[in-house]
Amino acid sequence: MTTDSAATGTTRTKARLSDRARGERALGWRLAGPAFVIMLLVTLYPIAYAVYLSLFNYRLTDPAGRKFVFLRNYLTALTDPLFWQTFTTTFIIVVVTLVFELVLGMAIAMVMNKVVWPRKTLRTIVLIPYSIITVVSGFAWLFAAQVSTGFFNHWLHVFTFGAWNLEYDWFGGRWSSLTIICLSEIWKTTPFMSLLLLAGLAQVDSSMEEAAKVDGATWWQRFYKVILPNMKAALMVAVLFRTLDAVRIYDNPYIMTGGANKTMTLSMLVANETINRVEIGMGSALAVILFIIVLIIAFIFVRGFKVDLTGGTRGR
Amino acid sequence: METNVSDKVKTWLGVASIPIMVWTAIPLLWILATSLKSTAALADSTQNILGNFWPKHMTLDNYRLIFTGGASDLFVPALWHSIVVCLVSTVISVILATFCAYAIARLDFPGKGVILTTALAVSFFPVIAMVTPLFNLWRQIGLFDTLPGLIIPYLALTLPLSIWTLSAFFQQIPWEMEQAAQVDGATSWQAFRKVIAPLAAPGVFTTAIIAFFTAWNDFVFSSNLTSENARTVPAALAYFTGASQFEQPTGAICAAAVIVTIPVVILVLLFQRRIVSGLTSGAVKG
Question: Among residues A70, A149, B129, B278, which one has the fewest Cβ atoms lying within 10 Å of its Cβ?
Answer without folding.
Answer: A70
